[in-house]
Amino acid sequence: MSRFYALQRHALYVLIAAALFGASAPLAKRLLEQQSPLSLAALVYLGGGLALGIAWLLRRRHMKVPRAHGRWTASELANLVGAIIAGGVLAPIILFWSLSKMPAASASLLLSFEGLLTAVFAAVMFHEAVARRVWLAMLIMIIAGAVLSLDRGEFGLQLVPAGGVILACALWGLDNNLTRAVSHRDILGVAALKGLVAGATNTAVAALLGHSLLVSVQGTLGALAMGALSFGLSLVLFVSALAHLGSARTAAHFGTAPFIGAALAVLLGEPLSLSLIAAVVLTVLSTWLVLTETHEHGHTHETIDHEHAHVHDEHHQHGHEGDEGPEPHRHRHRHEPLSHSHSHLPDLHHRHRH
């Protein structure tokens, strides 16, 4: 298997992340019967942060994980803070408020905008190369959402809540691109930090505004559990894929989340319609377009000094001190200028202009 197609295994991570996140809308709709949107946003991210924090501590205790030697740069810290504010604090509050004003199925379908807006930000703001077939995959996702909306007669959605969901998607799209800048760091640690800081921030705001987080034991535990899976584990898988697939392609795969939510609605009692079947077919087609993409051209790697987990492949031919441990290992290393041609994705070493 070529290195290009080996990287595509990370698409599976995104699809699992999409399944976990897609289930969040119908589950959150039920939890909002007991919790305020602000309280739910706090509990969900606290649940994700706590679960990932415990997993991070257990991994450090029972596994030999290379420590990161390089300090965080000012740019990396700025990107992380921006990602936490946009995607961890503002987006969930706006989404859950909107969800409290509209049907869960409608909100699930509108969440397809996250993938599109992530790709737009990646191309326009961060100059990521996005192939035509990836844009076509995005378009197919939107068509699939329109098919479902038309069948449900939901084009008459209230403007403000629907706009709120789209705004939340825009904030998560920005979050996704900012997080890519630190995706070479300890993925589990970064995700745990994002969840804990965002959850603590929303908890403080909820307390100041008089919103209780302990309305009921069942509701609180349900919110924490949903956060651990839909916003915790899902985030780790998503960030892992970002480092290898780039923002646009990761977002294209993650665009399946709304339709997974629709499928869950069927399992919870909604009828299986022809439009839902058509949307599933379109989603499979969209995913196939991105999975079968090839991107190859002559390119030059500039000199770069950075740190991330790696093996000694064509891009990592450097010396060692002797204490780096078995591959894959993490240590500071330097890339000398290199010009060559091969199939690649916009991973850590291929973020060049086209």
TrEMBL record:
Transmembrane segments: 12-32, 38-58, 78-99, 105-126, 133-150, 156-175, 187-209, 221-243
Main location per the UniProt record: membrane
Record-level GO cellular component terms: plasma membrane
Compartments reported by the entry: Cell membrane
Pfam families registered for this protein in UniProt: EamA
Region (Disordered): 309-354
Source superkingdom: Bacteria
Entries under InterPro entries matching the protein: Diverse_Substrate_Transporter (IPR051258), EamA_dom (IPR000620), EmrE-like (IPR037185)
All copies of domain EamA, residue ranges: 11-148, 165-291
Entry keyword Lipoprotein: no
Membrane association type: Multi-pass membrane protein
SUPFAM superfamilies to which the protein is assigned, alphabetical: Multidrug resistance efflux transporter EmrE (SSF103481)
Keyword Electron transport: no
Start-end of Basic and acidic residues biased regions: 309-328, 336-348
Keywords, in A-Z order: Cell membrane, Membrane, Transmembrane, Transmembrane helix
UniProt protein name: Drug/metabolite transporter (DMT)-like permease
Organism of this sequence: Povalibacter uvarum
